[in-house]
Design brief:
It is a multi-pass membrane protein. InterPro entries: BP-dependent_transpt_permease, MetI-like, MetI-like_sf, OppC_N. Keywords: Cell membrane, Membrane, Transmembrane, Transmembrane helix, Transport. One of its GO terms (cellular component) is plasma membrane. The chain has 312 residues and is mainly alpha-helical. The protein has a single domain, classed as MetI-like (MetI-like fold), CATH 1.10.3720. 70% of the residues lie in helices and 0% in strands.
Length: 312
């Protein structure tokens, strides 16, 4: 008898998957993914490739303040995109700022995902009063806009612990603020998926075998709810980056000595009418481009996981 063929590896299964098939035939998805990877690599490698360190005050000269880009009259070849009001190189602050913005975006979404999965699974699986209580709590939070919740919470933190404490833990504070403000999106989506999955035969079989509720929820039901979670996560990363930028613009985000894209835009806005448009323009273009490509990826993922569009 011939030997059984070896089971294909994960890489082989991935190469033969519908996901990769559709990805390689969608130019917008490939372009968006490439831009996202470029942003990610540049932000991670910021300490290695940035011309200067915007956190090192000894390398900053106030006499270099508000220099235009190097190709304009009065520009300096040391500063390709010009400098801000403190004399910091705009290119360097953009690289470091994008790293901070992406870090806050990913960590905030991780917190949203954690809260949303726990609450959504519990609500959908147990039902009854637990479901009613958790969903009414989510409805109440959804009645407030994300920015309103973020502004209120950040203002309370500043008033309670002082500006110095807030500045020291600003990144952590923003992650918590944005994460807590957006978890209902995940919870409601996961709950809807759980309500459909828990009636299927594999869940009943797991119950008959005596598996406890946590094992059924996390090892059997949750893996079948990952498609909508992945789509939401891409959109939520973009939303979290925009929320951080908006809070920094309003003065409730990162301090001026920790330049994020939002903080740079806010700083430059005060000087845009004096002619120093580059302080706001370049970080603004970077932020818009980053959010756009992430949203394009989210739209593509939504279409791929919708069988009526790609597999009809």
């Amino acid at each position: 008898m011939s030997e059984f063929a070896a089971a294909p590896s994960r890489w082989e299964r991935f190469k033969q998957s519908d996901f990769l098939y559709y990805f390689l035939r969608d130019k917008v998805a490939m372009f968006s993914f490439a831009i996202c990877m470029i942003f990610l690599v540049l932000s991670v490698a910021a300490p290695l490739i940035a011309p200067t360190d915007p956190y090192d005050m000894s390398s900053i000269d106030i006499m270099d303040a508000e220099l235009p880009p190097s190709w304009m009259d009065g520009g300096d070849e040391r500063f390709l995109l010009g400098t801000d009001e403190q004399g910091r190189d705009i290119l360097s602050t953009m690289l470091y700022g994008s790293r901070l913005s992406l870090t806050i975006g990913f960590l905030a979404v991780a917190l949203q995902l954690f809260l949303g999965i726990i609450i959504g699974l519990s609500s959908g699986y147990f039902g009854g009063r637990i479901d009613s209580y958790l969903m009414r709590f989510a409805d109440v939070q959804l009645s407030f806009s994300t920015m309103m919740v973020a502004i209120i919470v950040s203002a309370i933190f500043k008033a309670s612990f002082g500006s110095e404490f807030y500045s020291e833990y600003a990144v952590l504070m923003l992650v918590v603020i944005i994460g807590v403000a957006e978890w209902p999106q995940y919870a409601r989506t996961i709950r809807a998926s759980v309500l459909a999955e828990k009636k299927k035969e594999y869940v009943e079989a797991a119950r008959v075998m005596g598996f406890k509720a946590p094992r059924i929820m996390f090892r059997h039901i949750l893996p079948n709810c990952l498609s909508p979670i992945l789509v939401i996560s891409t959109v939520q990363v973009a939303n979290a980056i925009m929320s951080e930028a908006a809070l920094s613009f309003l003065g409730l985000g990162l301090p001026v000595d920790q330049p994020s894209l939002g903080a740079l835009i806010s700083i430059g806005f005060n000087y845009i009418f004096s002619g120093s448009w580059w302080i706001t323009a370049f970080p603004g273009v970077l932020l818009v481009t980053l959010v756009l490509v992430i949203n394009l990826l989210g739209d593509w993922l939504r279409d791929v996981f919708n069988p009526k569009i790609y597999k009809g």
